[in-house]
Design brief:
With about 120 residues, the protein is mainly α. It has a single domain, classed as Up-down Bundle (Four Helix Bundle (Hemerythrin (Met), subunit A)), CATH 1.20.120. It contains three helices and two strands, in the order αααββ. The longest helix is centred in the last third of the chain and has 21 residues.
């Protein structure tokens, strides 16, 4: 991929690696730790990240994966494996999109945004 939107794929790569790095720092015993009453536990955060990223990528970018968003069972290692595989596949699909795809539009949260059509099948 060598076009003006390469930085988006690079930014996603950086974010997915940071997420995996932070998640790998938790021990199994930390999964239900709540540092503050309004904060998510690591387990709740992992569910949120996996489910919301899957929804956003499918709704906004048309990148739908043939894999579940959440591991079964929902263990720390399971989340690491599922998120690593899913985010790698999403990154690879984004990297294959032609420059023209990034300028297309789609409805997202009731507003026209780009890109629209899925190039990442």
């Amino acid at each position: 991929m060598s076009h003006a939107f390469r930085f988006l794929v690079d930014a996603y790569e950086t974010e997915r690696l940071k997420t995996l790095s932070v998640w790998s720092q938790f021990a199994d015993a930390d999964m239900e730790f709540r540092p503050e009453s309004r904060a998510r536990t690591p387990h709740e955060h992992m569910v949120h990240q996996c489910a919301s990223e899957e929804t956003w990528m499918k709704s906004m970018l048309g990148i739908e994966l043939a894999r579940p968003a959440l591991p079964v069972p929902e263990t720390r290692l399971g989340f690491l494996e599922v998120y690593a595989a899913a985010s790698t596949e999403r990154r690879d699909r984004l990297a294959r999109c032609p420059e023209s795809w990034f300028g297309e539009s789609a409805r997202f949260f009731g507003v026209e945004r780009s890109p629209g059509s899925s190039c990442a099948a």
